[in-house]
């Protein structure tokens, strides 16, 4: 039988960390971070990284594994996560993935195969140039939908690399990627995915409060320290929400109140995109995290899965 993996996914600020901690505590679990920003060292406040106390209570993995100036890819995460999951299950413990990066979950459950057509750098760069901002990302996704609606339905507009690759495959071959022969992917693990949900306006209020807390707890100093150590503003890590908005505060005198308002707005938009992404996943057990029985229900579902009596 495949090793069994629990996963807690959902929008930012929706209670994933608390549920993941509760499940790990009750089910002999170790947490595997599934967050594309928590992988970076010294980026703690703006990523809502697990606290030292939480890490002391429950083992955490795949946080603080990359330097802020280096790129960290989905493929690298998939490799790292597979290794860590195997180590956890080898100890007889339960891996509990916790985070909101849907690309990471998709890589573990569906693989990263993008077709066997060789890349054309000129085509790749031209397509990449289209997606320089949010409007460009949507335009690129619309271009894909016009020629390969099956792939467009499968890929989120923010997944620029894979959207570009699908368009490149079509442009080079005239055949949609969804019709290209691809080796079948079978995950080496069995997954039970729990989704944290709540009324949207409540989530937005939680996001606003979280951003206020990050500013109060030294997020600006964290950004300043990263710049001082030589992390370039254009680095992948510095494009994260909460970091890119504060760089102009330090370099161009932008009012911090304006930056904070933009962080809140961008985080709300990001949460909406996460909702859209995860709602497309058919096998997520959704829980209203504000319901008093949510944690108990999650544990019941997880135990049934681990014991082989549920999906």
Key traits:
311 residues; globular; 50% helix; 6-stranded parallel β-sheet
Q: How is this structure best described in words?
A:
With 311 residues, this protein is an alpha/beta fold. Helices cover 50% and strands 10% of the residues. It is built from 13 helices and six strands. Strands 3-2-4-1-5-6 form a six-stranded parallel beta sheet, sandwiched between helices. Strand 2, helix 2 and strand 3 form a beta-alpha-beta unit. The longest helix has 24 residues. The protein is globular. It starts with a strand and ends with a helix. 38% of the residues are buried.
SSE blueprint and pairings:
Layout: E1 4-9, H1 16-26, E2 29-33, H2 52-57, E3 60-61, H3 74-90, E4 94-99, H4 102-110, H5 121-130, H6 134-147, H7 149-154, H8 160-173, E5 190-197, H9 200-216, H10 219-228, H11 247-251, H12 256-279, E6 284-288, H13 294-307
**SS elements, strand count:** 6
Distance between the termini: 14 Å
The 3D shape can be described as: globular
Please outline the major beta sheet: 6 strands, parallel
Rg to the nearest angstrom?
A: 20 Å
Which stretches are poorly predicted, pLDDT < 50 over at least 5 residues? none
Task: Trace the largest sheet across and list its strands.
Answer: 3-2-4-1-5-6
| Protein structure class | alpha/beta
Tally of helical runs:
13
Element order, helices and strands? EHEHEHEHHHHHEHHHHEH
